[in-house]
Design a protein that fits this description.
Elements (H helix, E strand, L loop, with lengths): L8 E5 L12 E7 L2 E11 L6 E7 L8 E5 L9 E5 L4 E8 L4 E7 L11 E4 H11 L2
Parallel strand pairs: 2-9
Antiparallel strand pairs: 1-3, 2-3, 3-6, 4-5, 4-7, 7-8
Length: 136
């Protein structure tokens, strides 16, 4: 029996992949000291996505809890993980298929290329204030 690689790609974006493209998309940011952090969606795509059981994202070691396991389910069919980051780096993703086989993919974050288009910054503090006001 021969083993084949899965047709799965690791993607990253500052735009929520669940929202259809907008004329002026929104980029979520927050300040941390002198750095601007971007909300980045990591997710899987590809023909073999239905055969994926889980994805283990191995982030840069400076992240608290740099190893994150995401199980594929109806609420998260593309093994989406949201991180806040200020830089680009390489991540490893260990993908487990439904038969228990593992595949490793290395992906260099490239969300920074999306920051060259026209978009609207949404500062997290503003989102939190709006949510707090709506609770009253």
């Amino acid at each position: 029996m021969t083993s084949r690689a899965l047709d799965i790609q690791v993607r990253d974006s500052v735009f929520d992949p669940a929202i259809p493209p907008l004329p002026r998309p929104k980029v979520y940011v927050r300040k941390s000291g002198n750095n601007t952090l971007y909300k980045v969606w990591l997710y899987l795509s590809g023909y073999d996505l239905p055969y994926v059981q889980s994805a283990t994202y191995i982030l840069h070691p400076t992240f608290s809890d740099p190893i994150r396991v995401v199980r594929r389910n109806l609420n998260n069919p593309d093994c989406q993980l949201i991180i806040w980051t200020w830089g680009t780096f390489e991540i490893k993703v260990k993908i487990e298929d439904k038969s228990g086989r593992y595949y490793e993919v290395v992906h260099r974050l490239n969300y920074d290329k999306e920051l060259k288009q026209d978009f609207e910054y949404i500062y997290e503090e503003e989102v939190q204030r709006t949510m707090q006001r709506s609770q009253f």
